[in-house]
Task: structure prediction
Amino acid sequence: MALAPSPLPIIDLRSDTVTRPTPAMLAAMQAAAVGDDVYDEDPTVRELETSLAARFGMEAGLFCPSGTMTNQLAIMAHCAPVSEVICEATAHVYLWEVGGIMHHARASVALLPGERGRLTASQVAGAVRPAGNVHYPTTRLVCLENTHNRGGGSCYAWEDLKEIAAFTKKQGLALHLDGARIFNALVATGQRSEDYGKLFDSISVCLSKGLGAPVGSVLLGAQELINGCKRLRKLFGGGWRQAGYLAAAGLYALENNVARLADDHRRAAQLAGALRPLPYVAEILEPETNLVIFRLDESRLTVADFLARLEAQGIRASGFGGSWVRFVTHLDVTEEMLTRLLAALPGLAG
Ligand SMILES: *Cc1c(COP(=O)(O)O)cnc(C)c1O
Result:
């Protein structure tokens, strides 16, 4: 059956990375003071790095093109050869970064099953390799993810983070946070960004997810770690020049687009509420932030049909493996669009 294209604007809920800069953000980018960042002469890059570091209680920051790069630089910097990294089995750093832990850090990975992506201190403790045994790699790093993408935007409780950090500190292990959506976690839980620097040795923060900047991620950590990562970034070919135009978008996003994440969270909850009673929905990971992940009863409606019928109405979602689908709310999803989506959902199995 040929489906007629929808004349209405596309509602793109595949990811919070699809947002486009607003005229105000573009104006801020155009007005940025810039210089050659490889010469350390870009004032706007410097402002982004230092202000975000201060905001998280860290010494220094490093502006990079992507969250994959900030995560992988940190992992590489924390690991000596023949290391092992502990992370959750569906962590972005393991699942969706092209096997970079193996390639860049040449480290092995100990995967733990999390509760919606969350690990506990006792799980981490159980995965540390005994020292002094010739058979084992050396455990050096624990990576956490907050919010957790595959876990459906789940957030860590502060107590759990503190316990894990107390353990890694005691053991002399490094602790890295993949905070691609850390601002979603902060807004949802009321935790304070400046406290995070006390727990983690490095934090990767994305500006191009819910915050709506077109490009960019910042790695935060101690000055010495960041100095090392800056060299590694150059090794990756990531030394860039007048990056201040992009940093300005990040600064604008941090200034204007953090508090409004609460709107995305409210809309995600509304969306989950509308999905719950539908006969073709088998299971929902109750949204804690802006990700709505749910499983279809494919005897009633297959993922392929669900996505095609949405697409026919100008609505986009992501297949998320098996019978799972993901909707992501973000700053380009308006109240009007949500209404249109909620109206469309009940008729899709027909
Ligand atoms: C998006 C994302 C990243 C980084 O992705 P890039 O596309 O490389 O910027 C890292 N971790 C998580 C949890 C993410 O969702």
